Amino acid sequence: MEIFHMWDVIPLLGIEMPPSGRSSYNVQCPCCDDSPRKKHLNINLKKDVYRCPRCGISGGIFDLYTLYTGVSRDKARKAIIERLGVPEDIKPRKKTVVKPEMKTECPLTDIDSRHATYSALLSKLSLAADHRENLLNRGLTDADIERLGYKTTPVIGMSALAKQLRSEGHYLAGVPGFYRDTSGSWCFIHEKRGILIPVRDYLGRIQGLQVRRDNVTKRKFRWISSTDQEDGCRAEGWTHLVGSVRPTLVLTEGPMKADVINALTGMTVLAVPGVNTLTQLELTLTELRREGLVEIKTAFDMDFAINHHVQNGYNSLLELLGNMGFRYGTYLWDPNYKGLDDYIWECCFQRRRSQ
User: Fold this and answer.
1) Could you give phi then psi for residue 202, rounded to 5 degrees?
2) Is 67 domain-assigned?
3) DSSP 112
4) Both 131 and 180 in a single domain?
5) 125 shares its domain with 78
6) Which of 349, 345, 329 is nearest to 337 (CA)?
7) What is the count of structural domains for the chain?
8) pTM for this one?
9) What is the DSSP string of 46-79?
10) Same domain (yes/no): 209, 247
11) What would the mean pLDDT of 68-77 be, rounded to a whole number?
């Protein structure tokens, strides 16, 4: 085992440090990336390795030092020791090490490429009858379902789907859900059966996909992600906007809930993945303010008032809105109905139908 690690060497090379809490991250590849915005070189601090899935360069600590400095591989260790000020008579401890399997994460590709790939993917899928019935029972119409792009998760043919998308010129690297299988071919992640939900930005572009899984009680909604697969990519916890940007919008939890509220009321609705998942919200609100947003009405499930964990997240949300200078308020409804979508559908529409 060496006396130093990858994180010791990175500052010597002028490479940016990882985001807080991340042990694997991407930087500009000095061999194949022609722009600082392109970041294909993955550095894994936990395993002390690096790899670029685009051009294929890979190695360990000394190889990285050689790559950036031009110092020969056999002199890299001595050069690092001198620059770090480590006594040369300290010998590395001998330890039998099983070389870890290198599964490299691709950096997230741009929104236009993701939108094009996801749109093409969804166009090749269908919506099962039971899933359509589920959505109709929430208050959506067939026209709403078609407009929103809901589909049933594919159960077979993942490699064939990826191959077809590539043949049509779509970019799969850096699109969450796609990865390379053991043969090196692109594939789409196999997810438990459920409803695929497109998560869109304020321009209507698909940023990522969520799935509402069938027959589960915990973590019913999950992101489509391939972060643990070779050349896979993680989802970022994006917000979801439905409806045109107006001075006032409703802020709720979950893209499906937002879609239903918008379909039933016509209000513009913004959804976060959860009241404790606000990493993308500030960026989205900054964009929407430029488009004229001034007031936000929160509409989270009624258990926020009694659930301590949810209430803490809700308080953090209100602090964020206040710090950003937005006017804000909260919708309240009959607590017998958990979500605003449930209340509107049952009390306003179903009751009218029964009269």
Assistant:
1) -70, -10
2) yes
3) H
4) yes
5) no
6) 345
7) 3
8) 0.71
9) TTTEEE-TTT--EE-HHHHHHHHH---HHHHHHH
10) no
11) 86
Question: Exposed, middle or buried, 72 (CB in 10 Å: 0-12/13-18/19+)?
Answer: exposed
Residue with tokens 């906007």: 241
Give every CB contact of residue 181 below 8 A, 6+ residues apart in sequence: 159, 187, 230
Alpha-carbon distance of 42 to 58, in angstroms, equals 9
Helix (H) or strand (E) holding 330: strand 327-330
Which residues touch 261 (CB under 8 Å, ≥6 apart)? Answer: 250, 252, 267, 269, 299, 340, 341, 344
Contact, 225 vs 176, CB < 8 A?
yes
Biggest distance spanned by C-alpha atoms of the chain: 89
Strand (E) or helix (H) holding 207: strand 206-213
The CA distance from 270 to 255, in Å, is 8
- What are residue 65's DSSP bridge partners? none
Cα 131-237-38 angle, rounded to 5 deg: 120
What is the rounded distance in angstroms from the CA atom of residue 254 to the CA atom of residue 159?
Answer: 29
> Taking a C-beta distance cutoff of 8 angstroms, is the pair 121, 186 a contact?
no
CATH assignment of the domain containing 312: 3.40.1360.10
Q: Does 172 have pLDDT greater than 60?
A: yes
Closest CA to 209 of 120, 330, 293: 120
DSSP assignment, residue 105?
B
- Report CA torsion sign: 107, 108, 110, 115: positive
What pLDDT digit, counting tens, does each position of 113-142 carry?
Answer: 999 999 999 999 999 999 999 999 999 999
What pLDDT does residue 56 have? 73
SS3 156: coil
In a domain, 326, yes or no: yes
E strand or H helix that includes residue 327? strand 327-330
309 pLDDT band, cuts 50/70/90, is low
Residues 41, 45, 49, 53: is their CA dihedral positive or negative?
negative
Contact call for residues 289 and 249 (beta carbons, < 8 A): no
Q: Domain range spanning residue 153? A: 111-223
Which residues fall within 8 angstroms of residue 96, CB to CB, at 6 or more apart?
Answer: none
**Same domain flag for 140 and 43:** no
